[in-house]
Amino acid sequence: MSGSEEHLSSSPEETRALGEALGRQLRPGEVVAFSGDLGAGKTCMIQGVCAGLGIADQVNSPTFILINEYTGRAGGQAVAVYHFDLYRLRSEKELEALGAEEYFYGQGVCLIEWPERARAALPPRRREVVLEYRGPQTRRIVLSSLSLPTPHFPDGR
Ligand SMILES: Nc1ncnc2c1ncn2[C@@H]1O[C@H](COP(=O)(O)OP(=O)(O)OP(=O)(O)O)[C@@H](O)[C@H]1O
Ligand SMILES: [Mg+2]
Asked: Is the CB of 29 under 6 A from ligand 1?
């Protein structure tokens, strides 16, 4: 883990603004995993990230097709932005069939909801955002960067 920051958001607007600040930092090839329960605010924050990447389109969760693609700008260049929602993913095989590796290790920016569904397939070098429900309007949001390979436990922990 190289650096982690914690925020307490007290409105969807605040979460979106945090996302926007993150979006402005992202560079081509970056992967960001957003974990948290249903309604924690993953999509809300990703809407901000997309705004920070200069995307004007309306961003909604890609519930049925698993991936939405947008074109944004990062570091002064055009970049493909892939928004994944893996909630309905049934297997790692299905993810493979989507060509996820090519997205995860490509030049685009990947924003992933429900990364728990595909832990083993995620690039070890990635950013993590964890959102936690703390009250009707309150969310704890922790941002961190992972740069080391994730340890492998043979029993699947
Ligand atoms: N501080 C906050 N930050 C983010 N969302 C908030 C906050 N307070 C209230 N909300 C509400 O919580 C909901 C978050 O919904 P959102 O779709 O972003 O969650 P999600 O984590 O993407 O859920 P899902 O797992 O179903 O995709 C919205 O209705 C939003 O208005
Ligand atoms: Mg969502």
From this structure: no
Asked whether residue 71 is domain-assigned, the answer is yes
Residue 155 falls within a domain, yes or no?
A: no
- Ligand 1 mutation target, pool 9, 15, 18, 44, most atoms within 8 A of CB: 44
Separation of alpha carbons 9 and 95, rounded Å: 32
Report the chain (157 residues): mean pLDDT per 10 consecutive residues: 86 98 97 97 98 93 81 95 93 89 96 93 96 98 84 62
Counting the structural domains of the chain, the total is: 1
Q: Is position 56 within any domain?
A: yes
pTM: predicted TM-score of the whole model, two decimal places: 0.92
Whether residue 98 lies inside any domain: the answer is yes
**Ligand 1 atom 8: the closest Cα is on which residue?**
137
